[in-house]
Each structure stands twice: as C-alpha cells, then as structure tokens.
C-alpha cells in the first residue's frame, strides 16, 4: 500500500527525531563515561556519582532471578533487627517516660537494620528504587525490566520480613524483652494516620531513601557511610515517616496479635507505603538528579 505525502512527511519527521534522540543519548553516555575520577580524598563529582550509580544498577539488572530473590529475602530478614530493637526499647522505657517520647527515642536504634542491609549489600526496595530507575532514564533498560526487578525485590523483602516477624513474635515474649501489647501498640501507631497522609509520608521517606543511595555513592570510607545511613534513617523514625518494608513487619506483627488490626488494614497500608516509597525514590531523586546532569550538558 502506497503512503500518502502526509504519511511520508510524518515518517520522515519521526525518523529525524529518532536520529536526533540517538545522537543526544550518545553525547550523554560519552559525558558520563568520560567523567574524570577525583582524587582519593576529594568528594566525587555529580557525573562520577551518576556513573557509579548506573554501573551498580546495571550489575543488579544482570544478576539472576534467584540471586536477586535471595539477596532481597536477606534484606527483609536483616531489616527485622531494627524491629527487634524498636520493640525492646519501647518495652524497656514503657512507664518510665511518655509514649510520644519513647517513639522519639526509638530513632536512635531504628537505623540498625538499615546499616546491616546497606553495608552487607543486600537488596532493599526503598534503597534500590532510585538506583534501578537510572538505567531506564539512560535508555539502557526498559520500564518493563525495571518493574519486573522492583517486583522481585519487593516479594523477597516481604518474605524475609514475614519470616523475621514470625520469629520475633515467638521469641520476644519468651525472652522477656517485649510483649504482645508492645507489638500491637507499635502497629497501631504506624497505621494511625489516614491513607492519604501515609501515602505522602511514604513519598517523603522514598525521597530520603533515594538520597541515601546517592549520598552513599559520594563517599568512600566505611565510617562516613555508616554516619550517613544513621542520619537519614533516624530522620525517618523521628519524623514518623512510613517505610514499606519495616512498616510491613510492624503492621504484620500487630495483625498477628490483635483482632483490631485486620488484613485489610495491613494491605491498604502496605499498598500506600509501597506506592509512595517508589514514587519518592524514582521521581524526586533519580529523575531530578539525572535531568540535572543532562541539563548541565545541553544547557536547556
């Protein structure tokens, strides 16, 4: 079937746009790969951080499904040590100070699980969200591949979280380090806000976790990395922002112990927290940081 003049014109314009886009992408890739390394003691440049982040993300995409799932399950288990400390500290301080003050004090122990996960290089959804978005923006991976990887990581994190929650539900009361009432109180505190508030809170939390990933790529020594993890995650706890993975453990544990917390309560919380965390990490960090680099290259 012969093309009309209008169709030929549209096809030519599309071809021209595709060629221009391809040329533009080559310039971006050349700029990223050509970024010079800074000195050992000097802070990394924007381009150097972006290059390292892209490299790390592509390594994750190239891992096998079983490797990603196992690493994600491990992260879900390890983040449970934050929950262990949250419950233990709450039980220890209960009756000695007000409940509001206890929840603020918890911010001092909340970072433990995150330090274990990040320093141990397990795959945690919120810390990886922005990272895994970068290859899509850089046209090295598709959106479908990203969503598949997100799904694997979330499934692994949740499975690990359920396992550690069941273990701690059994162990905590038997060791006398916390009781059922503490788990229920913490769960109710997490889901006390209305769903729109949880969603926005999770967006901010995802933003901070994406920044955590970016900041970690900017430093080289272990002590600085631990300090950054502690500062960012303690802000999450002190401000009461919602994190989908540790929040899953908290609400799931409370659901097991109280009829006041239903499966619907858990599912609506979990859906809102996951959506918010993903949006916050992908949009506010990956997109903004990447676009800032591109604008710097083309000046528009």
UniProtKB/TrEMBL annotation:
Primary location group: membrane
Record carries keyword Acetylation: no
Coiled-coil blocks: 3-30
Membrane topology, record value: Multi-pass membrane protein
UniProt-listed InterPro entries: Aquaporin-like, For/NO2_transpt
MF terms (GO), sorted A to Z: formate transmembrane transporter activity
Record's subcellular location: Membrane
Record keywords: Coiled coil, Membrane, Transmembrane, Transmembrane helix
Any one GO cellular component localisation term in the record: plasma membrane
Residue intervals passing through the bilayer: 68-93, 105-126, 147-171, 191-214, 226-246, 266-288
Pfam families: Form_Nir_trans
Matching PANTHER family: FORMATE TRANSPORTER-RELATED, INNER MEMBRANE PROTEIN YFDC
The protein's name in its UniProt record: Formate/nitrite transporter family (FNT)
Lineage: Bacteria, Pseudomonadati, Bacteroidota, Cytophagia, Cytophagales
């Amino acid at each position: 079937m012969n093309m009309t003049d209008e169709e030929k014109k549209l096809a030519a314009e599309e071809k021209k746009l595709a060629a221009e886009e391809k040329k533009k992408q080559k310039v971006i890739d050349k700029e990223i790969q050509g970024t010079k390394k800074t000195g050992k003691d000097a802070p990394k440049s924007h381009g150097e951080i972006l290059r390292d982040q892209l490299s790390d993300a592509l390594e994750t995409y190239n891992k096998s499904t079983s490797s990603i799932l196992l690493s994600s399950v491990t992260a879900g288990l390890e983040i449970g040590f934050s929950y262990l400390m949250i419950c233990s500290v709450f039980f220890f301080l209960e009756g000695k100070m007000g409940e509001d003050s206890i929840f603020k004090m918890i911010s001092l122990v909340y970072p433990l699980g995150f330090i274990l996960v990040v320093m141990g290089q397990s795959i945690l959804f919120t810390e990886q969200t922005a990272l895994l978005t970068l290859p899509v923006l850089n046209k090295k991976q598709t959106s479908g591949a990203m969503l598949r990887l997100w799904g694997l990581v979330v499934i692994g994190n949740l499975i690990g979280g359920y396992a550690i929650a069941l273990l701690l539900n059994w162990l905590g009361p038997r060791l006398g380090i916390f009781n059922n009432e503490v788990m229920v109180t913490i769960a109710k505190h997490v889901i006390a806000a209305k769903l729109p508030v949880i969603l926005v809170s999770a967006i901010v939390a995802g933003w901070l976790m994406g920044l955590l990933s970016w900041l970690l790529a900017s430093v080289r020594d272990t002590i600085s990395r631990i300090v950054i993890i502690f500062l960012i995650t303690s802000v999450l706890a002190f401000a009461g922002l919602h994190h989908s993975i540790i929040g899953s453990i908290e609400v799931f544990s409370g659901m097991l112990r109280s009829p006041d917390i239903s499966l619907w309560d858990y599912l609506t919380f979990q859906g809102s927290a996951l959506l918010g965390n993903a949006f916050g990490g992908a949009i506010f960090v990956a997109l903004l940081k990447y676009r800032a680099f591109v604008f710097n290259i083309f000046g528009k």
